[in-house]
């Protein structure tokens, strides 16, 4: 088990490092995307995304030429979480981010002008979900209540991961206040879990599947246990960009909507993109659980997430959803 998990971590970290070789100061074009598409020119757009399986839809759609057809050239900038990308959005270093909705919820409460313009992927309401809390097979951790008093990793503390884990532990009769959460990037989870730096870890695919496949235990799928079908990732931008460059937002929204519809119907292409970009074997990518790719925010569960955050004192009040959620 040690060899397989360590190798997984090294390969995933290498993929992240390779994808991170970008010029963070690269300027964005101000040309109109619709005009560019007609003329054959493209507008460069920087999009922050996590190095996880769900991003396969974006990678595959770029390769398919969907964004180029809409006059856009997408540069994918690696991020650890949606909240981490918000400063780059506000500075204009990136134009869009694909991340959890919790970061924008917090940003709205600070009146930072961050908006969710579309969904990206929802978790699954039943069966094996796209993320789960996992532990080593000999840990003795088999159910949510067992996480009480344990050290559990999430990629970003104070977001949907640890919030839904707390709720799942509480519902199972455990004391969520005794959990010690630590922040660990998803690609580092396999090696650190094996090294014993934490007792359990919240991880999406491919890391969830790889850990479980190597003999680990899937303890709980916290999204499915608390808010079934909760959005895994959303498309985020700023009110400033919406106001100043509505054509760019329109072109991006139309392209992403088409890309997600296409990805839902072309799982083989998505899995191939996952294997290529995360540097994992094709057979490993074939076993990954994919989310429901969708641009539609209607069933994303964002309001339920906000209410849960208030219940567990993550935030003092719910955000202004009319301002925060602006479906394009």
UniProtKB/TrEMBL annotation:
Location in or out of the cell: Periplasm
Organism superkingdom: Bacteria
Signal peptide segment: 1-25
InterPro entries linked to this entry: Solute-binding_3/MltF_N, SsuA/THI5
Annotated keywords: Signal
Ranges of residues in domain Solute-binding protein family 3/N-terminal: 44-263
Family label: Belongs to the bacterial solute-binding protein SsuA/TauA family.
Protein's UniProt name: ABC transporter substrate-binding protein
Organism of origin: Microbacterium helvum
Organism classification: Bacteria, Bacillati, Actinomycetota, Actinomycetes, Micrococcales
């Amino acid at each position: 088990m040690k060899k397989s998990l360590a190798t997984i971590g090294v390969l995933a970290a290498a993929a992240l490092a390779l994808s991170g070789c970008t010029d963070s100061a690269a300027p964005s074009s101000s040309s109109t995307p619709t005009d560019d598409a007609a003329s054959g020119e493209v507008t460069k757009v920087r999009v922050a995304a996590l190095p996880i399986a769900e991003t396969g839809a974006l990678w595959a759609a770029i390769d398919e030429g969907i964004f180029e057809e809409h006059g856009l050239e997408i540069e994918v900038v690696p991020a650890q979480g949606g909240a981490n990308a918000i400063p780059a959005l506000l500075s204009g270093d990136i134009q869009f981010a694909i991340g959890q909705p919790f970061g924008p919820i917090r940003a709205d409460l600070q009146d930072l002008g961050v908006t969710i313009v579309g969904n990206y992927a929802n978790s699954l309401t039943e069966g094996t979900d796209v993320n789960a809390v996992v532990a080593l097979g000999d840990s003795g951790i088999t159910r949510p209540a067992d996480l009480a008093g344990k050290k559990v990793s999430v990629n970003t503390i104070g977001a949907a991961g640890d919030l839904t884990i707390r709720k799942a532990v509480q519902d199972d009769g455990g004391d969520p206040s005794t959990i010690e959460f630590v922040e660990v990037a998803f690609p580092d989870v396999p090696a650190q879990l094996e090294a014993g730096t934490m007792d359990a870890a919240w991880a999406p695919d491919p890391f969830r599947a790889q850990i479980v496949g190597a003999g680990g235990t899937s303890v709980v799928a916290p999204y499915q246990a608390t808010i079934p079908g909760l959005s895994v990732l959303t498309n985020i931008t700023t009110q400033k960009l919406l106001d100043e460059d509505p054509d760019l937002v329109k072109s991006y929204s139309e392209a992403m909507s088409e890309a997600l519809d296409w990805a839902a119907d072309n799982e083989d292409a998505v899995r191939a993109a996952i294997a290529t970009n995360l540097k994992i074997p094709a057979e490993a990518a074939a076993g990954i659980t994919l989310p429901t790719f969708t641009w539609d925010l209607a069933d994303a569960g964002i309001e339920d997430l906000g209410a849960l955050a208030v219940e567990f004192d993550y935030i003092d009040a719910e955000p202004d959803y009319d301002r925060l959620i602006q479906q394009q």
